[in-house]
Design goal:
about 500 residues; mainly alpha; 4-stranded antiparallel sheet; two-stranded parallel sheet; 17 helices; globular
Length: about 500
């Protein structure tokens, strides 16, 4: 039976969405199936060689192959292995006589992202434990059902888990984005552009092949925003409100600054539906938070998180990557702030420089324009004391609705980026961009729609938008075999001596 060609523009868009999502998901699965740590000659040096800045030593013997990439994901994998195979959060132990032993000192499991309990002399992953516990539950099921070991059958275990914690949420994320752009977009061009950007032009894409907290937080943030909007029938329902709260809280558990998202969405729910906000949204949001705190207490025996102890004995023990002996000067991007980089320089590189949001993902400029314009219109509405109705199905594509979301996205972005500039002085180690801002991606893709729609009405505007998208895809595809590599702009600047970390 031959299907007739669709004549409805909406049907044509849905077909195009399906093609884009199929290509993006197929690429992600293919990359997971081939995931393996690579040793690039350009990043290493042989014994006796001297490079400035220093490079990593080239292995003397052929290394054992592993589908893990960096200290970041290995810290999580080591904790998963310890929980299931040994029934403990402990990933290593220090004996003053015999030395350090345990999972985290074995080849393929070594990581600098670990802390040492100063009294018990036990090593733990420095990562918040909730996501680790959830993945450990999946590994336990795989071990019971198929007899797989994360050591002997690591390719099967790690690939399967990556499919479930990265690819499945990625599909959900893209489907949610389709609903959001259909609701807030005004043109076919703008909607298709936003979905193409979601598939290939953001930091979600490179991180799909590694165990991390950012990709799943992006999905939960998209769900929290979408579920916080009223349904098509102008009724949210208690279940919808509770789910919005749950995903907002879960996002905060994976990205601490996303607590601002949860607070903002709660305030929005309180404004629209006070009873549902207090009795559904808030309790549901607290569930994952309580689970995180409980898991953290089981791990460390106290409520404080491991990463909150940075700069103290938990991190700066003898032999730690993070310990700087008196008179010692360490090189590398981890030490940019300690070696004198100013906050102004750090803020520049975080926004426009070698790890810049706008330099590596120029499509974010369109999102910024949409946020500023929308926030300005929203402010004018309030200033004129005109009624600012909540987001409603009957006005789902109205400017007023979109402006309110844009104002929220702008305020949230300023708070989150300001938090990192004020509290942080590093770039997250070897990584291809500001990964800790990834969860803001859904808001950026939605708020860029007015700017993209406007550009789409002009030939030069479409050309400009396509160039910005191409440059974003270029940055996100650079060294696609591992997200734990420096961005192309950093490599370019380092080769010319503009940065010397």
């Amino acid at each position: 039976m031959t299907l007739p060609p669709p004549s409805d523009p909406g049907e044509l868009r849905r077909l195009a969405y399906g093609v884009l999502i199929a290509v993006a998901v197929g690429m992600a699965i293919g990359r997971i199936f081939s995931a393996e740590l690579l040793f690039e000659p350009s990043l290493h040096q042989s014994p006796g060689e001297v490079h400035d800045p220093p490079r990593r030593p080239w292995p003397r013997d052929c290394p054992e192959p592993y589908p893990t990439f960096s200290s970041n994901d290995r810290s999580r994998w080591a904790a998963v292995r310890a929980l299931v195979d040994e029934g403990t959060f402990v990933i290593g132990r220090r004996d003053p006589v015999s030395g350090d032993t345990g999972i985290v000192f074995e080849d393929g499991w070594k990581t600098v992202d670990k802390v040492l309990h100063p009294e018990r002399l036990e090593f733990y992953s420095s990562k918040p434990p909730l996501l680790t516990v959830l993945v450990a539950g999946e590994y336990w099921a795989l071990k019971k059902l198929f007899g797989w070991s994360i050591v002997e059958d690591r390719w099967n275990v790690i690939r399967f888990i990556l499919l479930t914690i990265n690819v499945v949420p990625f599909v959900v994320y893209l489907m949610v984005m389709v609903r959001l752009v259909e609701r807030f977009g005004a043109t076919d061009w703008g909607r298709l552009y936003a979905i193409a950007a979601a598939c290939f032009g953001t930091m979600v894409t490179p991180f799909l092949i590694t165990f991390n907290n950012h990709t799943i937080a992006t999905t939960s943030a998209a769900l929290a925003v979408y579920l916080s909007l009223p349904g098509r029938r102008d009724s949210e329902g208690w279940a919808r409100c509770a789910l919005a709260g749950f995903f907002a809280g879960f996002t905060a558990c994976n990205e601490l600054p996303a607590a601002a998202l949860a607070v903002g969405l709660f305030a929005f729910a309180l404004w629209r539906r006070p009873r549902q906000a207090l009795l559904a949204f808030a309790p549901a949001a607290l569930l994952p938070v309580a689970a995180l705190l409980f898991a953290n207490y089981l791990q460390l025996g106290e409520w404080g998180f491991a990463y909150a102890k940075f700069g103290g004995p938990w991190y700066e023990y003898e032999g730690s990557h993070w310990r700087v002996a008196p008179g010692q000067v360490k090189r590398g991007i981890d030490w940019a702030g300690r070696n004198g980089e100013s906050k102004v320089t750090y803020a520049f590189h975080l926004l426009l420089g070698h790890h810049g949001v706008f330099s590596l993902m120029p499509i974010a400029l369109l999102a910024l324009v949409g946020m500023v314009v929308g926030a300005r219109r929203c402010w004018r509405t309030w200033g004129k004391r005109e009624p600012l109705a909540p987001l409603s199905p009957s006005r789902g594509r109205g400017e007023q609705d979109r402006d309110l979301l844009a104002a929220f996205a702008l305020a949230l972005s300023v708070v989150v980026i300001g938090f990192y500039v004020y509290k942080s002085d590093n770039y997250g180690g070897w990584t291809n961009g500001p990964r800790w801002l990834m969860w803001l991606t859904p808001l950026g893709l939605v708020t860029m729609l007015p700017a993209v729609d406007w550009l789409g009405q002009r030939r030069w505007g479409r050309a400009l938008a396509l160039v910005l998208l191409a440059l974003s895809v270029l940055a996100m595809s650079y060294q696609l075999w591992s997200p734990w590599r420096h961005p192309w702009l950093y490599t370019f600047m380092e080769a010319r001596g503009w940065v010397r970390y």
